[in-house]
Amino acid sequence: MILYRLRCSKGHEFESWFKDSKTYERQEKKSLIGCAVCGDSHVARAIMSPRIGKVGDKVEPEAPPPAAPAPSPEQQKVAALARHMPKELREALLKARAEVEKNCEHVGDKFAEEARKIHYGESDKRGIYGETTDEEAVALAEEGIEFGRLPWIPRGN
Ligand SMILES: [Zn+2]
Predict the structure, then answer these.
(1) Reported pTM
(2) Which of 46, 85, 115, 141 has the fewest CB atoms found within 10 Å of its own CB?
């Protein structure tokens, strides 16, 4: 048995079973096949649209790689400041930076958290450096935690 999808001259589509393709051709020639909808005997095999891939198997365009984080307004300000400050001041700041980097532990954006731990004896007393927000800096000062702020100017030009 073979299943054919057929279409009549009015465009109705229907499916019909035949013993084999020869049987279909014979019946089609003799107009023995009637449309299941309107009875029209002018039928022809409909072309089955091939299905490629699975439903929902869409190819997603690849996401662009994440861009490098832009420097924060604060960093841009400091960089601009560094470009316009006197050479001596810049060198002093760079020296201070090198000194801090040599003697202190970098704690990144956990500066406020770590400074508190040291202040309250939860962490070993040591020099640390990192980044913090203005709000955190104010809070640390109010808690009597000693720290200094240094314009972290970029190295080189
Ligand atoms: Zn029809």
Answers:
(1) 0.45
(2) 141
